[in-house]
């Protein structure tokens, strides 16, 4: 998509030192939770015909061009997708021979992901950060970081850094405000906060 950007950081290239940012993920969590209860029905399914297989086919074309060059060569690499939604990227990765895991706050979407035969669970990002799911080779945040305000995003980046192997990679996709038609992606979702 022209209106979205992919950000790739190798974990050995980014470092956030000495930050004393307080963890205030609760500030907007209740607000977002109301919208995420039925996120797919009200938001994610808006594009296209509403046919899940068509949407997934379109998603996979984007993943092939946007993400495939940044994925690890080793198919046994530990890959985790935060906010995996209905499992489209997990399915794409599984079809390529990876064994990814994902989590999402929306039980509705995780149910759809499980129906696709991929490994997804209902889990909040803060609960995942507090868990022992590390170290990770590749951490994915596709269309996620824009759902946080700037202070939350900084906290999140600091926290997830500890989950990634020293030679691992963090891949994020977010609306590109310099794109040709950024408003459709940037402001088309009421839960968007930090736009880059």
Please provide a brief summary of the model.
Helices cover 36% and strands 19% of the residues. It has helices at 26-36, 39-42, 52-66, 88-95, 107-115, 125-130, 150-161, 182-186; strands at 4-10, 79-82, 101-104, 119-122, 136-142, 164-175.
Overview of the structural elements:
The protein is an alpha/beta fold and 196 residues long. It is built from eight helices and six strands; from the N terminus they run βαααβαβαβαβαβα. Strands 1-6-5-2-3-4 form a six-stranded mixed beta sheet. Strand 2 (79-82), helix 4 and strand 3 form a beta-alpha-beta unit. The chain is globular and about 35 Å long.
| DSSP summary, beta strand count | 6
Largest sheet: 6 strands, mixed
Pattern of helices and strands: EHHHEHEHEHEHEH
**Average pLDDT figure:** 76
Unreliable spans? 1-5, 10-25
Structural class: alpha/beta
Strand content: 15-25%
Strand order of the largest sheet: 1-6-5-2-3-4
Q: Helical region count?
A: 8
Helix content: 25-40%
Q: Report the principal-axis shape.
A: globular
Tags for this entry?
196 residues, alpha/beta, 6-stranded mixed sheet, single chain
Strand and helix layout:
Layout: E1 4-10, H1 26-36, H2 39-42, H3 52-66, E2 79-82, H4 88-95, E3 101-104, H5 107-115, E4 119-122, H6 125-130, E5 136-142, H7 150-161, E6 164-175, H8 182-186
Parallel strand pairs: 2-3, 2-5, 3-4, 5-6
Antiparallel strand pairs: 1-6
């Amino acid at each position: 998509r022209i209106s979205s950007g992919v950000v790739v950081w190798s974990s050995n290239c980014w470092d956030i030192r000495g930050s004393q940012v307080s963890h205030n993920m609760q500030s907007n969590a209740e607000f977002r939770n109301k919208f995420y209860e039925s996120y797919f029905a009200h938001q994610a399914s808006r594009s296209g015909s509403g046919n899940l297989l068509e949407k997934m086919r379109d998603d996979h074309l984007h993943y092939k061009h946007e993400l495939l060059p940044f994925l690890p060569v080793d198919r046994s690499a530990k890959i985790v997708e935060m906010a995996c939604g209905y499992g489209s990227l997990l399915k794409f990765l599984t079809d390529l021979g990876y064994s990814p895991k994902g989590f999402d706050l929306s039980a509705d979407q995780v149910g759809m992901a499980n129906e696709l035969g991929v490994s997804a669970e209902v889990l909040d990002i803060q609960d995942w950060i507090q868990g022992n799911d590390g170290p990770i080779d590749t951490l994915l945040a596709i269309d996620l970081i824009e759902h946080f305000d700037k202070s939350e995003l900084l906290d999140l980046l600091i926290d997830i850094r500890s989950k990634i192997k020293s030679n691992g990679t963090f891949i994020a996709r977010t609306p590109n405000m310099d794109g040709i038609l950024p408003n459709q992606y940037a402001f088309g979702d009421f839960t968007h906060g930090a736009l880059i």
